[in-house]
Amino acid sequence: xxxxxxxxxxxxxxxxxxxxxxxxxxxxxxxxxxxxxxxxxxxxxxxxxxxxxxxxxxxxxxxxxxxxxxxxxxxxxxxxxxxxxxxxxxxxxxxxxxxxxxxxxxxxxxxxxxxxxxxxxxxxxxxxxxxxxxx
Length: 135
Prior knowledge:
Blueprint: E1 3-7, H1 11-23, E2 28-31, H2 35-43, E3 49-53, E4 60-61, E5 64-65, H3 68-77, E6 86-90, H4 97-105, E7 109-112, H5 118-128
Parallel strand pairs: 1-2, 1-3, 3-6, 6-7
Antiparallel strand pairs: 4-5
């Protein structure tokens, strides 16, 4: 079973995403907003894909405040986690934001909140999962 790591500081959003992904997608879900834990899970290969909230308001790494863009950049810069697909999730869905966020972060995809079409949400994530045998 594939595992989705949800990096989200809003517990309601995290619960909604978890429920949709487990019920509709048949996926395993982990959730944390702790940056050290995100890095550990990614480096240990315990997640197949990451859903990354762009504006993490309380996340701190090595004493510095970081957002989802910064965490994504760190994961993409690490050869051990560079191939891990990361989908940015944000409520900041203004014209041009998608391209800016993807370019800045190096993320593989982008989903805007709120998630209205649950099946489309699941389909987008499943489509980005590494196929078995790929790393």
